[in-house]
Design goal:
2 strands; mainly alpha; globular; 288 residues
């Protein structure tokens, strides 16, 4: 029973991390119609921004995380304004652009920081224990930050005028533009928010797991699985799917082993997509 509870806690923690990543991914697709293959790159950048701020500049870790969020958000905004905006309706071009940016980011980190994982640890240590169930202080902090960030994004999207404008553009860009919404202003803003979420995740997760130029690969795969399962462009679907994936991954890894657990996850996702091709909460992909 203790291992069952422990696996559940791990699954919820994983789900919160996946949700934070996938929300940014699905936000860009839902509003711009762009599949952002550079999402994993912004995760990597967030980790290295935080690492450099702590190790090289001697900043406190919370300030380093804040700088990572701002840095990745600004870079995402610039990337959309300078490159994506020029071909936002060309799906193939935007896929190639974002894939190219990911390769540029990972290779740049490789050149600057080298292939080895730097010594970057979470500033809090210690473990809370209840019977035979253990939870580390780092995981509790990460879980709290993820829930706060997810809640803030929901408030932004569903409780503010900016969120209503972004949702209007996602529903029907032509009508929203005729009503006075300005895609040239709102698209970069949405892109910046999404990349800032990826940067935040990288800054708080890489000190616990690992940091290297290629850690964005599994992040991109996980984000893609979550948004496909939840339904491309669905914020609620991505959130629910993230926790489903995290819990399945945790329980299958504990009771079936690492590789078998990953296999179970992929089989469940494939079977579900056979019966619901647009995902759990998806809708037919809009035509830009």
């Amino acid at each position: 029973m203790d291992s069952f509870i422990q696996a559940g806690i791990i699954g919820i923690t994983l789900g919160a991390q996946y949700a934070l990543l996938a929300l940014g991914f699905t936000l860009i697709f839902g509003i711009l119609g762009v599949i952002n293959f550079a999402h994993g790159g912004f995760y990597v950048l967030g980790g290295y921004f935080a690492y450099a701020a702590v190790s090289d500049a001697g900043m406190p870790y919370p300030i380093a995380v804040l700088l990572a969020v701002i840095g990745t958000g600004v870079l995402g905004w610039l990337f959309e304004v300078l490159l994506v905006e020029r071909c936002v309706d060309d799906h193939l071009a935007t896929m190639m652009l974002t894939l190219g940016l990911y390769l540029v980011i990972s290779n740049a980190m490789l050149i600057v920081f080298g292939p080895q994982s730097p010594h970057f640890t979470f500033p809090l240590s210690g473990t809370f224990r209840a019977g035979a169930v253990y939870v580390t202080a780092a995981n509790l902090v990460v879980l709290a930050v993820c829930f706060v960030a997810i809640g803030a994004l929901y408030i932004l999207i569903y409780r503010t005028g900016l969120g209503r404008a972004l949702r209007a553009l996602a529903d029907d860009r032509g009508v929203a533009t005729a009503m006075g919404m300005r895609p040239r202003v709102l698209f970069p803003l949405a892109f910046g928010v999404a990349t800032a979420l990826a940067g935040l995740t990288g800054a708080i997760i890489t000190p616990i797991l690992s940091l290297s130029p290629n850690v964005g690969d599994p992040v991109l795969v996980s984000s893609f699985i979550v948004v496909i399962l939840g339904g491309l462009g669905s914020i609620g679907g991505a959130t629910v799917a993230a926790f489903i994936v995290g819990i399945i991954e945790s329980y299958s890894s504990v009771y079936l082993g690492g590789s078998a657990g990953a296999l179970v996850l992929f089989v469940i996702v494939l079977l579900l997509l056979v019966f619901r091709p647009f995902g759990l909460f998806g809708r037919e992909i809009r035509r830009a």
